[in-house]
Amino acid sequence: MRQYIFHFSAKVSVLAILLFSCTLKVDAQLLSSVDTSTVVFSDTVKSIGLFSSTDDETEKSPLEKILPLSPQAAALARYGEYPVSHATGVPDISIPIYDIKIGNFTLPISISYHASGIKVDDVASTVGLGWTLNAGGAVTRQICGAPDMTDASFEYADYNKLVELRNKAHKDDTGTSMLRTILYGTGGSSPYFPYDTQSDRYTYNFAGKSGIFRYSYRNGEFIPVNYSRIRIYGDTDIDDGLFRITDTDGIVYEFSEQERCGVKNDENNTDVSAWYITGVKTPYGDIIIKYIDSSLYTSYSCSESVVTGIFDHDDYFNGGLYGRCEDSRFLGVRTEVVYKIPVVSEISWRGGSIKFNYMNDRKDVWKTRLTNISVCDTDGKQIKFVNFSNRHFWGCDSTDMRMMLDSIFISDSGFYTFDYYNISTCRMPKYKNAQCGQFLGQTLCEADYWGYWNGKKNKSSIPKEAYEMCLAKYQGARGNAGYPLSLFADRTPDENYDR
Questions:
Q1: Predicted model pTM
Q2: Nearest partner of 324 among 315, 337, 335, 333, judged by Cα
Q3: CA distance linking residue 51 with residue 30, whole number of Å
Q4: Mean pLDDT by 10 residues, the chain (499 residues)
Q5: Taking the domains of the chain in order of start, what are their residue ranges?
């Protein structure tokens, strides 16, 4: 059973059981034959079989367009996906830093630890692994298909129309071209997606409020998934886009500082993955939040595909004749993603200011860490000081190190210290960008189905059970493909590692 054990005292000591996972991103490569069986294993578990006329060796995977959130945005988004409440079982583990008070309005500044577990691909925020700096907030976005509110058509946002198109493709191939355009865009190094079939997924986290919202093509507005009584205005334009959220007290929160990400060497095309809060408007006065750029962060998005079916083969029969046989094909795609991440530098209001200072001296995959916070009054005199210590890095080198939060010193309350289980061990799972190959057996994955560390040194992220399902229909592929089951992953949990 995955759980956390925390002990709080005057000097806070935290014993955390860390859970690790890597994200399963497995997709099925489309075939160049009219008699195929395609099984798609992805986060949404959606499967559409298409008849393909293109070369399967150059086929693109839809997962190339799914870009993970940055470490900072992911830490904030987690509170929207798994809110702190008795209903979710996530406890409130936080340390207050300072409360900004303007009239009857309070904006708390704190750090918090989310007890949903640490995954293999989780990268520490500027505070430390599992910790989040709550200094305003953000709206994050996971793009699904084409970005919302662009010139892409939403004709097929109606699921029933998409099903009709799929049925046409299976019946007489008339819908194949349109389906391929919806899935893969127009092709090329930077494909354009002329159709959007579903809303992007947004999370918000600010001033103690968190949740999820989606864009409604039918109503032309953003709607909270939990029907929270907040009003959301949004403009996702990459140049001047922003979000403006009004709560039930009439307080207006504006998010206009953009975090951008894009595929390296992709004609410098970028998408906005998060909007950070830049201002709070209250009846008693305004709060202004400023940002600076952190060090560039680079990650890798890995996609693995195996398709089993009937393929065309040249020179299959003796004499060089053209033939067909049951076979399996593998395709691995490694995409390098670069992030431009803003970090909060100053918060000011009529009663004072808070300054946040950073250094780029980390040993893991992202270099920026928060070193201290200084609170000043209206005259610029320091009234409170907070110092962060991150001396320990869990792991051996940059391919598996995790920056831990060792202690915090708060000038008016003393030290908070943290201890972690197995902190002295050097055996840690590597990040997926440490070993991500284009051939079967070259991608390292040490995670169970849910993403937590299971200690298995798998050579692929594709579960062996999934491949066996394909072979059940095409027995001939066992001999022709040359893919032994040992190359596929054991994704079962192991309590010796996930606790």
A1: 0.79
A2: 315
A3: 8
A4: 36 35 32 29 28 36 62 90 86 95 96 90 94 94 80 75 79 72 62 76 92 88 88 87 95 96 72 94 97 91 78 52 66 84 97 97 94 97 97 82 94 91 68 66 83 88 86 70 80 83
A5: 44-414
